[in-house]
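We were asked to recover a plausible sequence for a given structure. The inputs and outputs are reproduced exactly as logged, with field labels preserved.

PROBLEM: sequence recovery
POSITIONS: 429
GIVEN STRUCTURE:
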């Protein structure tokens, strides 16, 4: 069974092909799934069974799931063909008459693979849907099109009408911020506030520095419970490239979107049974609302199961308390996002050749590091994920917090030279 998962814990099946049964792994291990003949076979089976066979079915209430499966398969492989593109046109033309699940699958796929072509159909759906998530997805799609400039004011007007009726809706609140800030330079509080020795004392921190444009990989660093950032044997700060981009590149408050900014609870290691994630040690994370407040704040004395935003706010440095993006993980959790972890990858990197993040694999919202598996022996040749897990262990173990922050608008991968000035300022303050 072939499982395409957002993270290790996700249980739904996207499509079924003949590729062997998932099993737990231990290191070291040779994976038959990464061997070139098996990767080639997997790709052919995805095209034949998950895409073509599903799209051959007439679109009805009973076959919506088959079409959704095909969209997800095309999204993960970035597959295009004239025949499949015609089916996509048909899906967009008919999505306003279909279920919200189908609409979400079409919009997610369209945002990823066809970001500019379906303005008319998406605008029509936006003006008719009563669903806040679908409305938000439509608005996000429109803001990628050539009509973004002339539609922004209308979108804000329609959005405010919805907020008047539902002023605490997490989808609408996040969308409001994104529309208001669209086209403006990113204005981040002093990043060094997150790097100070006395910030969240006694907790191990995993900090992932990202660009606003998640097509460019970010950088992850590890701080021990005493407030010291780890260094390597040469005295240089330990850092690794880490991707926070999802396959669809939707913003982090939406299901399957990019890794949200903000704070996550880090609470253990695990090993995935997913073929696409692989056996390397992953780091378990959780967002607000995903578990109890007592768990998230690591405080057994908390009996209240409600989630006042003030408690989350206390985790932030003073300069970040009024910075709305720092609350994205809070609102994403409130909106229902779950199962975001930090993991490696066994996905065939050739699917993403030519992308800025190649050879790292995009996910369905997790933090992903580079791993290179031999296509001839099946053995793991290079693993930043195992290096990251070892660093977290050295820092005191996976019991603390992970922080994801977009540092600026620069169109380039984050490198250590981007972070060194912040580290220097943090030491001086």
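RECOVERED SEQUENCE:
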């Amino acid at each position: 069974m072939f499982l395409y998962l957002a993270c290790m814990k996700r249980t739904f099946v996207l499509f079924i092909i003949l590729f062997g049964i998932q099993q737990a792994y231990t290191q070291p291990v040779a994976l038959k799934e990464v061997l070139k003949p098996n990767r080639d076979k997997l790709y052919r089976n995805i095209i034949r069974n998950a895409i073509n066979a599903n799209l051959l079915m007439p679109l009805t209430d009973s076959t919506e799931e088959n079409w959704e499966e095909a969209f997800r398969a095309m999204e993960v492989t970035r597959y295009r063909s004239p025949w499949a593109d015609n089916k996509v046109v048909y899906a967009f033309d008919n999505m306003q008459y279909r279920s919200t699940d189908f609409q979400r699958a079409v919009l997610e796929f369209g945002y990823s693979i066809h970001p500019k072509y379906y303005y008319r159909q998406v605008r029509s759906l936006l003006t008719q849907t009563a669903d806040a998530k679908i409305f938000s997805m439509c608005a996000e799609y429109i803001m990628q099109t050539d009509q973004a400039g002339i539609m922004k004011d209308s979108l804000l007007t329609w959005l405010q009408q919805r907020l008047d009726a539902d002023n605490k809706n997490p989808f609408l609140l996040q969308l409001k911020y994104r529309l208001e800030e669209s086209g403006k330079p990113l204005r981040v509080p002093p990043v060094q506030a997150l790097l100070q020795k006395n910030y969240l004392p006694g907790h191990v921190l995993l900090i992932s520095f990202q660009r606003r444009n998640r097509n460019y990989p970010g950088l992850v660093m590890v701080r021990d419970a005493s407030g010291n950032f780890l260094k390597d044997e040469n005295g240089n700060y330990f850092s690794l490239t880490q991707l926070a981009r999802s396959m669809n590149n939707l913003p982090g408050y939406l299901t399957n979107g990019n890794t949200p900014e903000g704070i996550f609870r880090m609470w253990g290691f695990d090993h995935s049974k997913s073929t696409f994630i692989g056996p390397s040690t992953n780091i378990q994370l959780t967002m607000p609302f995903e578990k109890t407040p007592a768990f998230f704040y690591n405080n057994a004395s908390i009996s209240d199961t409600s989630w006042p935003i003030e408690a989350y706010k206390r985790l932030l440095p003073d300069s970040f308390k009024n910075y709305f993006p720092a609350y994205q993980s809070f609102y994403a959790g409130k909106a229902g996002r779950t199962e975001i972890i930090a993991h490696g990858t066994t996905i065939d990197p050739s699917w993403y050749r030519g992308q800025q993040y190649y050879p790292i694999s995009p996910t369905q919202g997790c933090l992903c590091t580079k791993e290179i598996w031999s296509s001839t022996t099946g053995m793991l040749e290079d693993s930043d994920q195992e290096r990251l897990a070892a660093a977290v262990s050295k820092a005191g173990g996976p019991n603390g917090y992970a922080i994801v922050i977009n540092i600026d608008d620069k169109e380039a991968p984050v490198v250590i030279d981007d972070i060194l000035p912040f580290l220097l300022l943090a030491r001086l303050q």
